[in-house]
Amino acid sequence: MSSEIQALQARWEAFHAKLKERVRAILEEAEPGCLAVFEQGGFDPFTLSNVLPALKRRLFDLVETAENTWTTQMDPALGRAAAGPEVVDREYDKLQALRAWTEAELEAFEVRLHATASRILWARLGPTVPTRLNCTQCGSPMELPVAFVVVSVHCPSCTSVNTFNPGPAALLDSYAIRHLAHEEVWEIRTGAEPMPKPQRLRETSTYQAEVEAWERRYGMRDYPIRAPY
Asked: Helix, strand, coil: what percent of the chain each, to 5?
C-alpha cells in the first residue's frame, strides 16, 4: 500500500476520532440541560420531547459532515491515489460504522435520560401513593394492588366496589415504569452498568409486560407479549 493511501487513511481516522469526541461532548453537555428543562417544566416528562429532536439533529449533522467529506474529498482522493476497491470499501465501512456508533450513543443517552427522569418522578410521587385504602361503604381497610393506574378494589368485608385513583402518580405507570423497564433490558443487552430500579415499580404487571416488550423489540424474546392487565 502506498504512503499516500496510508496518509489518507490516517487523516480519515483522525477526522472520525474528532467527530466522536464532539458527539461525546455534546451528549455530556446536554444531560444537565435536559434535566433542567424537565424541572422547569414542572417535572412533566413530555417536556423532554421538546429538546431531544434538536439534540438528534446536532449529532446527525456531524454524521452528514462525515458523509459529505467522504463524497467530496476522501473518495476522490482515494481514486487519485489508485486505491483498490477493497481499500475504498474498507474506508467507506468506517463511515457506516460512525453512523451506527452515533446511533448507539444517542440511544444510550436517551435511555439513561428517561430513566433518570423516572427515578426523579418516583422520588417525588412514590411517597404520595398509599398502599391501603378504607372502604367508602363500611370503612374497612383494604390492601391495594401494586399498580399506579385507576383500579377497582372489592372490599373483603362488605363486597362493595371501591375505585382507587392514583392522581398525578399515574405518571409512574404511563412513563416511569415503561422507561425503567426499557433501561433494564437495554443494560442486559449492552452490558451497561445496572442502575437501581424501585422495587415497588418492578413488581407491577406493567413493568413485567414492558420488559417482555423490549426483549422482543431487541430480538431477545420470540414469544407473544403479555397484556399489562
From this structure: 70, 5, 25
Task: Please identify, among 106, 126, 146, the residue that sits at the C-terminal boundary of a domain.
Answer: 126
Tell me: pLDDT of 222 over 70.
no
Are 200 and 142 contacting, i.e. CB atoms less than 8 angstroms apart?
no
What pLDDT shows up at residue 224?
46
Non-local (6+) Cβ contacts of 35 within 8 A are: 113, 116, 117, 120
Range of the domain at 81: 3-126
- pLDDT digit string (tens) for 128-160? 988 889 999 999 999 988 889 999 999 999 999
Q: Take residue 221 and report the three cell numbers written for it.
A: 424474546
pLDDT of residue 131: 86
pLDDT tops 80 at residue 226: no
pLDDT digits (tens, 9 = 90+) for 2-50: 999 999 999 999 999 999 999 999 999 999 999 999 999 999 998 999 9
Q: Please choose, from the candidates 220, 14, 190, the residue with its C-alpha nearest in 3D space to the C-alpha of residue 105.
A: 190
Residue given cell 433494564 in the structure block: 184
- The rounded distance, in Å, linking the Cα atoms of 47 and 208 is 26
Count up the domains in the chain and report the number: 2
DSSP, collapsed to helix, strand or coil, labels residue 197 as coil
Cα-flanking dihedrals φ and ψ of residue 141, to 5°? -70, 145
CA dist 101 → 87, 94, 96, 192, 194 (Å): 21, 10, 9, 15, 21
End-to-end CA separation in angstroms for the chain? 63
- Residue that terminates a domain, selected from 126, 150, 171: 126
